[in-house]
Write a structure and sequence with these properties.
- By secondary structure, the chain is mainly beta.
- It has helices at about 5-10, 20, 165-170, 225-230, 335-340, 440-455, 485-490, and strands spanning about 30, 35, 45, 50-55, 65-70, 75-80, 105, 120-135, 145-150, 160-165, 190, 205-210, 230-240, 255-265, 275-280, 285, 290-295, 300, 330-335, 350, 355-360, 365, 370, 385, 410, 420, 425, 435, 455, 480.
- Strands 3, 4, 7, 8, 9, 10, 11, 12, 13 and 14 form a ten-stranded mixed beta sheet that branches.
- It is elongated and about 125 Å long.
- Bound molecules: calcium ion (CA).
- It is found in: Secreted.
- This is DgyrCDS11978.
- Keywords: Disulfide bond, Glycoprotein, Laminin EGF-like domain, Repeat, Secreted, Signal.
């Protein structure tokens, strides 16, 4: 039996980040001296505690006779019966301890000539980055085995690795191809005899996901390989037990049998978390740092979009940067053009500015509000309503700097709610303030003349007449003949 620890150290030599992982402990490793740094969840046997299903397990439907072979010699034959604890061979035996007694998952009898297509599927429940897959057999290793991975919980499957004595005939892949930088995401095919498996005394498949791939020591800068090692599910398909069918005396007693399955890897957090936990819905997720979020820390938090999200590397933690919204928004969005424009320093645009603010940084007051310069822009009351007088102001929009509303003639005050000196209030909505009539003698004469012939309407109207002129809003149809200053008349 090959222990997990033995494999761990073996693959640590192949994987550049492993030495770092060995030093992990419970403290937050995503910061050093309050500065963000690249961090990783611990390296683990990913299948422990995971759901494993097999398309075929002996003894579930009926008792069956099992005869395992090693070095072409039959081992002791036995009965498989799921109802008998001493005779059962469930998928649990793939991940249990094989000490002191080796335990095996065993398929149903193969019955017919190949292909047999017996599969084992492991559901991780989250993206993991895998380093190796190890399968230890209870008898001679099968002749043809295919490993597949899925990145979307089993909706699509990608070949991960083939093993066969006849790669081309069985899987359509040339054996032992050379991987270059152009085809790093391609599955290889190799015979099971030799290679890594030959170093163990037990028939074993030991697939290293990065071995022979040129960028394996530059994973940080290789998105292709980052995808290559990522999986949410693994499927192992046993296609053929024996190379030579003629050797099969009877498929009735032939089975696939595996004593141990281990998959080395770590919860995928893109360098932004050092552990994963189960959330309130029972799903695994990263405990994201560096202002990131998502089950894989695969995006920046809503208010931290000033720079584009990036995976953390040993050189740069690529912490997500907070947008400057002056405390008036919790959301911003990243704009690539702005980011390019700024020389890669800032690309965030604040969204849904609150407290009557507006602008990319919520840094000025929205229309109909003005800036209260007595407080900082970050103050909740930094923008006050213009509150322009309905009749005294020409409009509702005031000067954004000082709040001055656009007053009608004769009207003053920030809100345009006062009559200027020399003006008096009227009931008119159009001319709320009119120039006062002087009390001097000459003016009294004018007042007299006004009564007599000052106003004359241009056309007849039931609503408008000279008497009502100063009380209501019927001035449009009337014209001053002599008394009122010309500028006042123009205002109608
Ligand atoms: Ca076992």
């Amino acid at each position: 039996m090959i222990s997990f620890h033995r494999l761990f150290f073996f693959f640590a030599l192949l994987y550049p980040s492993f030495q770092d992982i060995l030093d992990l402990d419970e403290e937050d490793t995503c910061y050093e001296n309050n500065k963000p740094v690249f961090c990783l969840p611990k390296f683990e046997n990913v299948v422990e505690g995971k759901k494993i299903t097999a398309s075929s397990t002996c003894g579930l439907k009926n008792k069956s006779r099992i005869c395992l072979k090693k070095r072409n010699e039959y081992l002791k034959c036995d009965v498989c019966d799921s109802t008998d604890r001493t005779k059962q061979h469930p998928t649990d035996f793939l991940t249990d301890s094989d000490t002191p007694n080796k335990t095996c998952w065993i398929s149903e009898a193969l019955m017919t000539p190949p292909p047999h297509n017996v599969s084992i599927r492991i559901h991780f429940g989250k993206s993991f980055e895998l380093t190796y897959i190890s399968i230890v057999f209870c008898q001679d290793a099968p002749d043809s085995v295919a490993l597949y991975k899925s990145m979307d919980y089993g909706q699509h499957w990608t070949p991960f690795q083939y093993y066969s004595s006849s790669c081309m005939d069985f899987y359509g892949v040339r054996p032992n191809q050379t991987i270059t930088r152009d085809n790093e995401q391609e599955a290889l095919c190799s015979p099971l005899k030799g290679g890594v498996s030959a170093t163990y005394d037990t028939p074993t498949i030991a697939f290293s996901t990065l071995e022979h791939r040129p960028n394996s020591f530059n994973l940080d800068n290789s998105p292709v390989l980052q995808d290559w090692v990522t999986a949410t599910d693994i499927k192992i398909i046993f296609d053929r037990l024996l190379q030579n069918n003629a050797l099969a005396s009877s498929y009735m007693t032939m089975h696939y049998a595996v004593s141990d399955l281990s998959i080395g890897g770590r919860c995928k957090c893109n360098g932004h978390a050092d552990r994963c936990i189960t959330d309130e819905f029972g799903r695994l997720k990263c405990v994201c740092k560096h202002n990131t979020e998502g089950r894989d820390c695969e995006r920046c938090k809503p208010l931290y979009q000033d720079k584009p999200w990036a995976r953390a590397t040993k050189q740069n933690a690529n912490e997500c940067v907070r947008c400057n919204c002056n405390g008036h928004s919790n959301v911003c969005r990243f704009n690539k053009e702005l980011y390019e424009w700024s020389g890669h320093t800032s690309g965030g645009i604040c969204q849904d500015c609150k407290h009557n603010t507006a602008g990319r940084f919520c840094h000025y007051c929205k229309e109909k509000y003005y800036r209260d310069v007595t407080v900082k822009i970050s103050h909740e009351q930094a923008c006050k309503a213009c509150d322009c007088h309905h009749y005294g102001s020409k409009g509702k929009v005031c000067n954004s700097a000082n709040g001055q509303c656009p007053c009608k003639v004769g009207v003053i005050g920030r809100k345009c709610n006062l009559c200027a000196t020399g003006y008096q209030q009227t009931r008119s909505k159009i001319v709320p303030c009119q120039r006062k009539i002087s009390g001097r003698k000459s003016d009294r004469n004018r007042k007299h003349r006004r009564k007599k012939n000052c106003w004359k309407c241009l056309k007849r109207s039931k609503k408008a007449n000279a008497t009502k002129f100063c009380k209501r809003d019927y001035g449009k149809n009337c014209i001053s003949q002599s008394f009122w200053p010309s500028y006042f008349v123009k205002d109608f």
